[in-house]
Design goal:
Chains A, B, C, D: Its EC number is 6.3.4.5. 4 copies of one chain form a homotetramer. Chain A is of the alpha+beta class. Chain A has helices at residues 14-25, 43-52, 64-77, 89-107, 121-129, 133-136, 144-159, 229-242, 267-283, 286-305, 311-323, 354-357, 359-362, 367-390, and strands at residues 5-9, 29-36, 57-62, 112-114, 175-176, 181-183, 203-210, 213-219, 225-226, 247-253, 259-265, 329-336, 339-346. In chain A, helix 2 links the parallel strand 2 (29-36) and strand 3 (57-62). Chains in contact: A-B, A-C, A-D, B-C, B-D, C-D.
């Protein structure tokens, strides 16, 4: 008799193949679920492999459009960046993948969800934590799967004639999606050209934003235009990749408390990060921006740590979205040899007032204003220095 | 009879020449003070001009070494950056210049200090606010100078036969120092090559840090080595400039509340910013880093707004310096076509533990740990979702 | 010929009477505006006085209900408190008063608004800064009024036979409204009994909240019930006042940079502050609360500094209101001898789960979870200590 | 053969007695360790009981003075308060207890430490996380103890004839120390009188601080004076307790993510909290205070969550201590019927300048300053409103 049905996040690779077999052997019915989030994968081959290994059903789901609109766009609005450098390409994909997995579990009346993350805690934390509200009622998410998965990956291979790789497993694993590829140090870059070999002439783009989200990208000289989220993002990946944009090699702090080296390619995400920063600075009040900056840092930590579906992350996303209402306009930029150079910007909502900038010549405030402003500001400082003098 | 002595921050240019003349005409004795903070200037010619215009004394002070050690280094430690993009090259110079001006005023028993900032409030705020403690006792800093200066710059020119420029004054002014050059949109770049014309092969450098401060830079292939603050910084400017590093075109929020376009070149500062970020992430505890990140944002705002000598900025600098005690080690990087690419890092104080990273294979914590960790974390989230369910 | 019409915020007292006369003398038509925000005032007498002094029109506006609903309630939601102690009773009233003043100016086609704050910068900043968006178009708000007002208050008295007080003006002035009274040290308390003379038996109240706002208060024993904002607040003032609740004597930091002593009575506001803190802690997720706490501190600073109508304050109010959606339920409390004691709370939205609290006995997570949780948390700490050991 | 030596944090109560017996039965040598942190306990009886149950050695350590100086004082400096209400009396004691436990383990060459916290994760996290640096080298702290302890508490009682309580265990446990007592709802209060029965006349105290730490307390009328940390704190407990100060009934958010009711008595700590807030506001620069306030909130979270010995908590304590250098002076206060009323304060380091407060009459800054200050501040707001108008 079946112990129940498991929806397994299946990659087509060795680990999750082992888990699939092992879960079956333990008496579970297994539904294989493979999310297409833009990785380079032979989905048909993966489907056949899963069926051959005994999956009762196989779901291959194209999540690319919702990945861009519902997960990448909010991260762009937030200027999400972890520890000042990492654009969170792996982290952004997880809640997108997990959400569909749970939806399938509900539809198929599965009691369990499972995935192949071998002890990679942050992955798991994500998975457990990120179940959307709706699913909790049907009790799908018993984390029982975790031990199964872990045992599976280590024991299953030999038992089932799945060839065990000769070299010990590296601490890195490649993780690829529409947003980025994460690498081992010795890997070949896949999304981006080496800037040393990239073209010697820049491409000029114009990015258009509304409510802090990209709504159009145009190539200034060849006239190419994209205006759906997925197309915009694919095109930015193409242009950024061609010019070697978005490679980084960093050491980052993982959730569970250790430092970890990460090598990432994020071409389109890098262009968007810079363009959005620019249009935001152009259209957002200075003090609102400061508050939003703090919320963006918080959002980035939550995203990195796997808390997308937490109440605090929902709250922060709401507040960030609110801040973006006037973030609207066009940014001109060039992409060249790994660089994204902002060339200009325009906006109907701009707070930039050229007349105001030059008002020191004959302006709306006069020298006496400036003097008073300074004098009042100085009251506190003078008191401080007076006291320091008295006490020396 | 003299109304007293004014120490005038003199640039050699039109504005401050007018102020000099005007101050004399108003009955003040004028001491001209010209700080060498690395700008491209004919200091001898400036001295002669000041003397010719009637300055009682002229002080030309080489502040470059203290500018690097006492002002740029703390900003590097802080990862000081304004609104995520501007490395604060103008702001960092001001407290350095103002400090010496006040010291001269004290030594020369001057009653006033003055400068040529025509209504540029932030400059003035800096000047008034940034007087070091010691000087307040002798009451040097009456902001009376401000009105004088402002009136001077607008009225003085015609009266004294100093030729008035035909075109109305641009809202931009070029500001140059060791750290950066700030530009008008139509200016020629001076410190950096255009990446399109820069060399086709990268230069590889190794930066060495101790307590978060650069202590050595070496060129990996040609063996050049620099190990004093000023030499290090000049060399980084040279290499960065050669490869077109550190150009930005931004809109920033000024202290007085308007948006302003800024075009900056900061070659050496940009290299240092990236190298320091890397060695800091490699050696600093994650949670200390988060706290320090917040303090660095605060420091950047204070610096931008002219509050270097405020009690809060002194406090923040102390706390940031404390955080840097273990920020020590070497960073390898390449500089190429506007990019600073981190290649690797090493440190005796590293918290990076390669064994730990791979511990999911056979590690110090076991799958059960991970599972427990996740389950405990999930308690709060499950409660939240339970409640959401109840209330739907 | 008239220089235009000024809407003068008129208190009926000496200062604003002088300003009224002086403004007329300068050639302005004056509309006197007196806001009823709950202060103890003979409004009829004030009207007559203003008319006698030459006001073209007199507006006496009862703003009490909107003061409670639109200004006090958001402050309660924010747990607004300045420097950990001051409940901001003066600050909350200003944007309420200023808004109506500007509305009257628009309706009456006045070109100016004026008020009697003699150099009290924070008051003025409030007034100038707090003009709602709509009014800027008709250019009502030239701060010209400020100098008028200031000159008026100092010069006007003698000229017009208004008796000048013999004693020099105290640095304190009493400021009273529905929310609080601010005092000079030697004043008699007006809203609250001395706890030493207050009743020897407590009153028990039950406060009901929805979306973080009070919607009902009931006296547990005598059955009194109030359920409109103004009535609720008046009743809490009555009960709090009877028991000596809400007296403080503090030194606070003023916006312009000096320290200032403040003595305040805020009976109803103090009860609400405690009751709201309690229901909020009971119903809000821990991590959302942390974020909201930071926003509340920001809100308090903005409010204190007169920036209610700034973009950042609008933004923060929106975010805080969002956080309050589930802050709903009843709090039981006793009021006695200056104390507000929380006795209990209940809520349909509570995240408090008594079973969960005792789950260590036979709970949803088991000892192994706890152990794993601790072990994972300890990874970072052990690495830190390992390094410290290596470097000693 | 012994499995090794365990240093058991022994309370003399049922739980830890069971653990002691169970550990022995499992083959461990047990050293019982009982910290005197001010709880009401018969230490001699506890020693005898531990010996009778088979402890190899018994350490009873009077930690009261170091508890006050090294743990309570830094918390007072930090204005440590959790979720705006709880003074952290339980949390502050743990790192003090754990430190000595580890020191004993090292001195006695014990391999393990253990305690009786039955699944109360936060307790355990504290214990594991809070081991000072020095001890990690000798590998004392394997959290193996945890399972032992937990199993012990549930299974040991029956086996060893220790009477099992008839009623199921309450989710609350009383926790008492010098700083506070934590209660179950039905408990009798032990440290504080009911304000309804407390004296009808207040006691007046004068607290003296240096570097933010209490250095003396005097009774204004009866002349009692205390000037060592332990005596000061005991005396404040006595006076506060006599007047019913420091009782709270709250719901708080626990580290592991659930809400928990807490009822606390903290008489002396409450007096100190208010007195320190007052002298700090009186002597600290406004902007330094804001930064320190944020650090204090962080410190409170770390303390609550058991991270006293973490790098971030060490860092935050350092920064907070730095902020306290000028927090010096005397605070007069009355204690009465549950209230702590600040009556006045004085300080050689005060930034309070009575002349400055009244400077609007004839002051150091003039009306024009104020006007300029306001006008400059308004630049940003006017731009914002202009834009809002354009876009409506």
């Amino acid at each position: 008799m079946s112990k129940g049905t498991v929806v397994l996040a299946y990659s087509g690779g060795l680990d999750t193949s082992c888990i699939l077999v092992w879960l079956k052997e333990q008496g579970y019915d297994v539904i294989a679920y493979l999310a297409n989030i833009g990785q380079d994968e032979d989905f048909d081959a993966a489907r056949k492999k899963a069926e051959r290994l005994g999956a009762k059903k196989v779901f291959i789901e194209d999540l690319r459009a919702e990945f861009v609109e519902e997960f990448i766009w909010p991260s762009v609005q937030a200027s999400a960046i972890y520890e000042d450098r990492y654009l969170l390409g792996t982290s952004i994909a997880r809640p997108c993948i997990a959400r569909r997995q749970v939806q399938i579990a509900q539809k198929e009346c599965a009691q369990f969800v499972s995935h192949g993350a071998t002890g990679k805690v942050s992955v798991c934390a994500q998975c457990t934590c990120s179940l959307p509200e709706s699913t909790v009622h049907v009790q799908v998410s018993r984390p029982v799967h975790l031990e199964l998965a872990i045992l599976g990956s280590e024991m299953g291979m030999a038992k089932h004639g799945i060839p065990v790789p000769v070299t010990p497993k590296a601490p890195w694993s490649m993780d690829a999606n529409l947003m980025h590829i994460s690498h081992a140090p010795s890997d070949l870059y896949l999304m981006t050209k080496n800037p040393e070999q990239s073209p010697n002439t820049p491409d000029m783009l114009e990015m258009e934003f509304k409510s802090g989200k990209p709504i159009k990208v145009s190539h200034v000289t060849d006239g190419t235009t994209k205006d759906t989220p997925l197309e915009i993002f694919l095109y930015l990946n193409e242009v950024g990749g061609k010019h070697g944009v978005g490679r980084i090699d960093i050491v980052e702090n993982r959730f569970i408390g250790m430092k970890s080296r990460g090598i990432y390619e994020t071409p389109g995400g890098t262009i968007l990060h810079h363009a959005h920063l620019d249009i935001e600075a152009f259209t957002m009040d200075r003090e609102v921006r400061r508050i939003k900056q703090g919320l963006g840092i918080k959002f980035s930590e939550l995203l990195y740590n796997g808390f997308w579906y937490s109440p605090e992350c929902e709250y922060v996303r709401h507040c960030i979205a609110k801040s973006q209402e006037n973030v609207e306009g066009k940014v001109q930029l060039s992409v060249f040899k790994g660089n994204v150079n902002i060339l200009g910007r325009e906006s109907p909502k701009s707070l930039y007032n050229e007349e105001l900038v030059s008002m020191d010549v004959q302006g709306e405030y006069n020298p006496c204003d400036a003097s008073g402003f300074i004098r009042i500001n100085a009251v506190r400082l003078r008191e401080h220095h007076r006291l320091q003098g008295l006490n020396q």
